[in-house]
Amino acid sequence: MMDNLRLICLSVFLVAWTLSGACQQMPEKPNIVLIYVDDLGYGDLGSYGAVQITTPHLDRLAEQGVRFTNGYSTSATCTPSRYALMTGTYPWRRQGTGILPGDAALIVPQDKATIATVLRDAGYKTGVIGKWHLGLGESVDKNWNSAIKPGPLEVGFDYSFIFPATADRVPTVFIENHQVVGLEDDDPIHVSYTEKIGNEPTGRENPELLKMSSSPNHGHDNTIINGIGRIGFMEGGQKARWVDEELSLTFLSKAKIFIEENKSDPFFLFFALTEPHVPRMPATMFKGQSKLGYRGDAIKQMDWTVGEIIGELEKLKLDDNTVVIFTSDNGPVLDDGYVDGAVEQLNGHKPAGALRGGKYSIFEAGTRMPWIVWGKGVEKNKVSEALISQVDLLASLAELVDSVRPKEARDSKAMSKVLLGTADEGREYVIQHAGTLAIRKGDWKYIAPSSGRAYNKLTDIELGNLPEDQLYNLSEDPGETRNLANQYPEIVRELKSLMEKEKND
Questions:
Q1: Strands 382-384 and 125-131, bridge-based pairing
Q2: Where is the Sulfatase N-terminal domain (predicted)?
Q3: CA distance 226 to 387
Q4: Which residue, 85, 276, 319, 460, has fewest beta-carbon neighbours within 10 Å?
Q5: Crossing angle between the packed helical segments 78-87 and 393-400, to the nearest 10 degrees
Q6: Angle at 323 between CA 318 and CA 327, to 5 degrees
Q7: Is the dihedral of CA 406, 138, 183, 287 positive or negative?
């Protein structure tokens, strides 16, 4: 009897010891927060050299984490960059991935892996909050007054609280999961991008009703909502329409709720802020804070919002087990459709830093982004020169959580150690995309010939399109002022060959 009791006790002890050892060998998966902002320039943060504006919360993350100097979006505009981030493939490989109108159909494939499905399959609760701009539904013609799908929930997210496209495009409503928030049955929404619908005033016909003037010829002169002319026409949904000043605060509130509700499980939050994209109409407490017009005020609001997210993680004691990634979808633009003080009150601020171009441009300022990583396992106060692209986030996060990069994410490179700052060898080369394609390898950048415009007068941005080869040494000439193509034809041939290989792959 005693021998049997000893045997049982010994067995219980061994099982407990084995389970304890197994638990110790299984590291806790880190939460992941991807903060993706809109139209922020390489020179817009203090940690990247800005002196006319202060960004203390993001500067703190840079001091306590890794700041990349060669981190890229794939494209110089928003929709294609977001497509690459979601799918792990370059957007120029597929037609229909350009800047989408507000009524576009979903362009993210539902039958292929996304960054959200990879993490969900790895045991994560997944959520997207903020700007979407990847289309909704099966077609342009959709009923905004019933379930709107497919959308984020059909491509890997467990929870979604978004606006459909950009803040300057209709419909100006929040969509939670599949439903417009606050919509009333007797006031249905109708949207058109081809003709005026309804009797609501427009910026073109009633400029006296605008509280923010539209820039001429930009197209922001259709239906007036909250005193701001939009792109596209909308009627109905009066009580469902958001107010621009509340956008960021609403998204922040929803993000905090998502973090709180999922604090006991590993979670992935794709937090897509609208700042500093137009129309820039920050909350009242931020107006005038930057002395750089509403664009500067929007950057101050963005920085504060990031600080609030970090504060929430710290309050819930999640900061020791969370990786936060901060970057932007494309480069800066000042006048992108509204007269908001961004040009007149620039006051010596350089949104692109020492780089040339901006949003829409194949020059560096179009795609070289502020990029900061902070949190669990991340090196502290490190400046990384590793070459990395946002298309790599899918494979890198899969590697971080011990998952496998799906084969269809063909352009995504697994570089989790580079992301955390524990390794320095990034990509061999990266493809950049605007009106044409460019390739960067080491210090050299080659831009393919293009018949497109060299300069956008409306935005006052050099687009970088020329009918001949362009070659720049970025270490000696970060402003891309000296075309060396004729002096180094062998380098032109090498980079052109690499680019053609990618295009034909």
A1: unpaired
A2: 30-402
A3: 42
A4: 460
A5: 30
A6: 130
A7: positive
Give the tokens for residue 458.
């409306």
Q: What is the pLDDT of residues 280-313, one digit of tens each?
A: 999 999 999 999 999 999 999 999 999 999 999 9
Residue 28 confidence (pLDDT): 85
Q: To 5 degrees, how large is the angle CA 457–CA 463–CA 466?
A: 115
Q: What global pTM score does this model have?
A: 0.94
Residue 20 has pLDDT above 90, yes or no: no
Sign of CA dihedral 99, 283, 221, 141: positive
312 φ, ψ to 5°?
A: -65, -45
For residue 477, the one-letter residue type is D
The separation between the first and the last C-alpha atoms of the chain, rounded to the nearest angstrom, is: 73
Determine the average pLDDT of the residues in 243-268.
Answer: 97
485-492 long-range Cβ contacts below 8 angstroms, 24+ apart: 485/446, 491/444, 491/446, 492/446
Structure tokens at 412: 């995504």
Residue 27: pLDDT band with limits 50, 70, 90: low
Which whole number is the average pLDDT over 178-202? 97
Tokens representing 318 are 């999640």
Q: What is the distance between the alpha carbons of residues 78 and 484, in angstroms, rounded to a whole number?
A: 30
- Helix then strand then coil, % of the chain, to nearest 5: 30, 20, 50
**198 vs 187: CA distance, rounded Å:** 12
C-alpha 279 chain-centroid distance: 17
Q: Which residue has the tokens 């409503």?
A: 173
**Tokens 């109905």 — which residue?**
236
